[in-house]
TrEMBL record:
Functional description taken from the UniProt entry: Catalyzes the deacetylation of 1D-myo-inositol 2-acetamido-2-deoxy-alpha-D-glucopyranoside (GlcNAc-Ins) in the mycothiol biosynthesis pathway.
Keywords carried by this UniProt record: Hydrolase, Metal-binding, Zinc
Cofactor note as given: Binds 1 zinc ion per subunit.
EC number(s) given by UniProt: 3.5.1.103
Organism (species): Micromonospora wenchangensis
Protein name: 1D-myo-inositol 2-acetamido-2-deoxy-alpha-D-glucopyranoside deacetylase
Gene it is expressed from: mshB
InterPro entries with a match to the protein in the record: GlcNAc_PI_deacetylase-related, LmbE-like_dom_sf, Mycothiol_biosynthesis_MshB
Catalytic activity: 1D-myo-inositol 2-acetamido-2-deoxy-alpha-D-glucopyranoside + H2O = 1D-myo-inositol 2-amino-2-deoxy-alpha-D-glucopyranoside + acetate
Length: 354
């Protein structure tokens, strides 16, 4: 049973009456916290489609509308922030189409559409916009995410690492908000048992750079070494490898839905054409909170984000909280605002990631 907002009976006196309804959710519930529309498809699209197809409840929370994004459709150029400033509203439709391609039916904007604005790249004047997500009050934003956690009771949450994967201020803030919400949920006994951060193994990056050495469309052209990239995780620190190769077509369709942000001739599609399902379908994560489940290979990588968790139906009556095992990490504490901003020299390698 789940309480709905209080309602007052006509002619009644006293406090509102709580209205309850029966709510049932699947045994496995996954929450993803992303910064802008298109981040979900590029970084976790195959994972989302994989679990949605398997019957898990997949909830996507997007923190901004992506108002400051570039526009790769000339006919829509006037939607730009410096012109009509209507790009954010247009991207709501793109995100809806992407979620449909991924089979995800539960998507929300943090605090509602338009509550927080895209902050733009690090150091830009847009960082100081009154509604910029980068400037959001951490506890207020985390409280809004906590409301989603209370409703869905996810066992697993996915977001970015403390550097927001590559240094974008909204990605960094999404990390902070997610981790603070997890901390608040822990105080209520409803925190997700496991928290993963998106990651890319160094071995995969090195292979990608070598493949593109002679390519005319080389996203790593300005990069001499994998050490110069603002992302990349040692293989022994990766916790999970999710093989969603059977969903690579869904991920590509979701990316193509974000046409304003990812041009039709993007190098991302060129890689997909050359390397197929492996590139589009496999995604990697580090484990920030929780105990690793069974894995395999030289590093014991998990093949399931729910590994080691005993799934149980969501109890939304308030009578029994979901298990919330796991060790807190330093980033779960209220962070300062001086997180590293990444390396601007890697712009070509991060094209399409915002």
């Amino acid at each position: 049973m789940a309480d709905l907002p209080g309602r007052v009976r006509p002619g009644a006196r006293g406090p509102p009456v709580r209205v309850t309804v029966v709510t049932t959710l699947p045994d496995r519930r996954l929450l993803l916290v992303h910064a802008h529309p298109d981040d979900e498809s590029i970084g976790t699209g195959s994972t989302m489609a994989h679990y949605a197809a398997a019957g898990a409840h997949v909830t996507l929370v997007t923190c901004t509308l992506g108002e400051e994004g570039e526009i790769h459709v000339p006919a829509l150029a006037q939607l730009a922030a410096a012109e009509a400033d209507q790009l954010g509203g247009f991207r709501i439709g793109e995100l809806a189409a992407a979620c449909a391609a991924l089979g995800v039916t539960d998507h929300r904007f943090l605090g509602g559409a338009g509550r927080y604005r895209d902050s733009g790249m690090m150091g830009m004047p847009t960082n100081g916009h009154p509604r910029a997500f980068w400037a959001a009050d951490l506890d207020e934003a985390a409280g809004l995410l906590l409301e989603v956690i209370r409703e869905i009771r996810p066992q697993v949450m996915v977001t970015y690492d403390p550097n927001g994967f590559y240094g974008h201020p909204d990605h960094i803030q999404a990390h902070r908000v997610a981790m603070r919400a997890h901390e608040l949920a822990g105080a209520e006994g409803i925190a997700p048992a496991k928290v993963y951060w998106t990651a890319m193994p160094r071995s995969v990056l090195e292979a990608g750079m070598s493949h593109f050495t002679e390519s005319a469309d080389n996203p790593f052209a300005a990069i001499d070494s994998v050490d110069d990239l603002p992302f990349g995780t040692p293989d022994d620190q990766i916790a999970a490898r999710i093989d969603g190769t059977d969903q690579h077509a869904a991920k590509e369709a979701a990316m193509r839905a974000h046409a304003t942000q990812i041009p039709a001739n993007s190098w991302l599609y060129a890689i997909a054409g050359n390397f197929g399902a492996e590139f589009m379908g496999v995604e990697y994560f580090t484990l920030a909170v929780g105990e690793p489940g069974p894995g395999d290979g030289p590093y014991g990588w998990e093949s399931d984000l729910f590994a080691g968790i005993d799934p149980d139906p969501a109890d939304l009556s308030g009578g029994r909280p979901d298990p919330s095992a796991g060790r807190p990490v330093a980033s779960a504490r209220r962070p300062e605002r001086d997180a590293p901003a990444g390396d601007a020299s890697a712009a070509t390698a991060t094209a399409g990631l915002r």
